[in-house]
Specification:
The protein is an all-alpha fold. It has 2 domains: 42 residues; 371 residues, no CATH class. 80% of the residues lie in helices and 0% in strands. Helix 17 runs antiparallel to helix 18. The chain is globular and about 70 Å long. It starts with a helix and ends with a helix.
C-alpha cells in the first residue's frame, strides 16, 4: 500500500509540478508516466505499447477529419456569409452587432468545432466592425471570446469524440444531439447580458428586420450549413459512422470552399492542410501520451481512490455535483481542454454516475467547464487570441467579460441540475 501511495504521488505530483512550470502538457504527461514506470520497475516498452494502443481506435480517426473540415470551411470564405445570416436574424435589435456576434458563433461552431478558430476567424471581422459602429473595444472582445464557447457544444465537435472515447465508447451521435440545446441556452443568456449592456451604454440598433433578406441569406449560407447536416443526420440516422461522416464532410468542405464559395485556391488548400497537420500533431501526441497516464491511473486504482475521497466528504448529490464542476473549472484554468478530457474523464465520470448524472450529461458539463477555462487566466488560450485580435489588454478583456462569466456559470448550473437540457434530444431520436 505504501508503494502504491508513493507511485500515485510520483505520478500526480510530477505531472502537476511540470504543468506549473509551464512544461508542454503532452511531455509533462509522458515524463510523469515514465518516472512512475521507473519507480515501479516496469519496462519502458510499456510506453510505446500504450501510446500505440491509445491512438489505435477507429472512432478517433474522426478527430483528424473534423479538424481538417473546420480549417477548410473556416478559411474557405464562409465567415462573412454566416455573419450576414446572423445580421439578418438578430441585427435589428438594440446592440445588434453584439447579437450578431453571438449568433454567428453558434453557426460557425457547427463548422469549426473550435473556440480558438471561432475567435480568430469571426473576431478578426466582428471586433473591428463593432468598434467602428461605436461599441467599446473591450466589450466587443469580451462578447467574441465568451460566445466562441458555443462552438464547443454545437456539433460536430472533435472534443465530443475525445470524450466519447475516454468514457468507454459512448454514442458520438447522442453527444452531438446533446450539445444543441445547451449551446442555444448559452447563446440566449449571453444575448440577454449583451442587450442589458447595450441599453445601458446606448449602443446602436441595426437595420429594420427584413424577412426577404433573411431568406436570401439562408439560401447563400445553405452550402456551409449543409456540412453540419451531413455529419449530424448521417451519424444520428445510422447512415455513417462518425469517422465516415467526418471523411465525407472533409471532401464536401473542399468542394464548397474551392468551387462554390471560391474562398480557397489550390495553394490555399495546401496551406490549410499544413495548418491542420500542425494542430493534429499536437492533438494526437496528447491522446497517445494520455493513454500511458490513463493506464497508470487505472493500475494504481486512482479513480476509485478519488471517488472514495470525494464521496467521503458528503453524500449530498447537489454538493457533489457542484464540487465536480469546481474541480473541472480549476483544471480549466491551468490546462488545455484535450488533456482535461483525456485525463479527468476516467477519474470523475464514475463519481458523476454514482450521483445520478448520465454520462452524456456529464460530457456536456465537462466540455462547458473546459470552455470557460479557455477564457480564464493563466492558461486561457482563447482569451489570449481574443486579446491579440482585438488589440486589447488581457486585464481589460477579463474585466469586461466578468458579467458574461457569471452568465456562463448560470448556464452550467442549468445543465448540471436539469438533465433534460442535455438528454431531451438524444432520447427523442433514440
Amino acid at each position: 500500500m505504501m508503494a502504491d501511495s508513493t507511485a500515485v504521488f510520483i505520478l500526480l505530483g510530477s505531472f502537476l509540478f511540470l504543468v506549473l512550470i509551464r512544461f508542454p502538457i503532452a511531455y509533462a504527461v509522458a515524463l510523469a508516466s515514465i518516472f512512475t514506470l521507473l519507480y515501479q520497475g516496469l519496462p519502458l516498452t510499456t510506453v510505446a505499447q500504450q501510446m500505440v494502443e491509445g491512438i489505435s481506435s477507429f472512432t478517433l480517426m474522426a478527430v483528424p477529419f473534423f479538424i481538417t473540415m473546420g480549417y477548410l470551411m473556416g478559411k474557405g470564405g464562409i465567415s462573412n456569409r454566416l455573419i450576414d445570416l446572423a445580421q439578418a436574424c438578430v441585427g435589428w435589435m438594440r446592440g445588434g452587432m453584439a447579437m450578431v456576434n453571438i449568433v454567428a458563433s453558434y453557426f460557425f461552431g457547427g463548422i469549426s468545432g473550435s473556440a480558438a478558430a471561432d475567435t480568430a476567424s469571426l473576431g478578426s471581422i466582428m471586433i473591428p466592425m463593432m468598434v467602428d459602429q461605436g461599441y467599446d473595444d473591450d466589450f466587443s472582445t469580451a462578447v467574441t471570446v465568451t460566445s466562441s464557447c458555443e462552438g464547443l457544444l454545437v456539433p460536430p465537435s472533435h472534443n465530443m469524440v475525445l470524450y466519447a472515447t475516454s468514457a468507454g465508447g459512448l454514442s458520438v451521435g447522442a453527444l452531438f444531439l446533446a450539445g444543441y440545446i445547451p449551446a442555444a441556452i448559452l447563446a440566449v443568456t449571453l444575448m440577454i447580458g449583451a442587450y442589458i449592456f447595450s441599453v445601458r451604454r446606448n449602443y446602436p440598433k441595426g437595420k429594420k428586420f427584413d424577412i426577404l433578406n433573411l431568406f436570401k441569406q439562408i439560401a447563400i449560407s445553405f452550402w456551409a450549413l449543409a456540412a453540419v447536416l451531413i455529419v449530424v443526420v448521417g451519424v444520428v440516422g445510422g447512415i455513417f459512422t462518425p469517422t465516415e461522416s467526418a471523411a465525407i464532410a472533409v471532401i464536401y468542405s473542399l468542394i464548397v470552399s474551392v468551387f462554390i464559395y471560391k474562398g480557397l485556391d489550390w495553394k490555399g488548400v495546401w496551406r490549410v492542410l499544413d495548418q491542420a497537420v500542425n494542430t493534429l500533431s499536437i492533438v494526437l501526441i496528447l491522446i497517445a501520451t494520455s493513454s500511458i497516464f490513463g493506464f497508470l491511473l487505472t493500475r494504481l486504482n486512482v479513480p476509485t481512490l478519488a471517488a472514495n475521497a470525494i464521496l467521503g466528504l458528503t453524500d449530498n448529490p447537489i454538493i457533489l455535483a457542484l464540487l465536480l464542476n469546481m474541480i473541472l473549472l480549476v483544471l480549466g484554468m491551468i490546462m488545455d481542454m484535450a488533456p482535461i478530457i483525456l485525463i479527468a474523464t476516467p477519474i470523475l465520470l464514475p463519481i458523476a454516475t454514482s450521483i445520478g448524472i448520465a454520462p452524456i450529461q456529464f460530457g456536456i458539463m465537462m466540455i462547458l467547464n473546459c470552455g470557460i477555462g479557455l477564457l480564464t487566466p493563466p492558461v486561457g488560450s482563447v482569451l489570449f487570441i481574443g486579446s491579440a485580435v482585438g488589440k486589447v489588454s488581457i486585464e481589460r478583456v477579463v474585466r469586461a467579460a466578468f458579467p458574461f462569466y457569471i452568465l456562463m456559470i448560470v448556464t452550467l448550473i442549468l445543465v448540471t441540475f436539469i438533465p433534460s437540457i442535455s438528454l431531451f434530444l438524444p432520447s427523442l431520436f433514440r
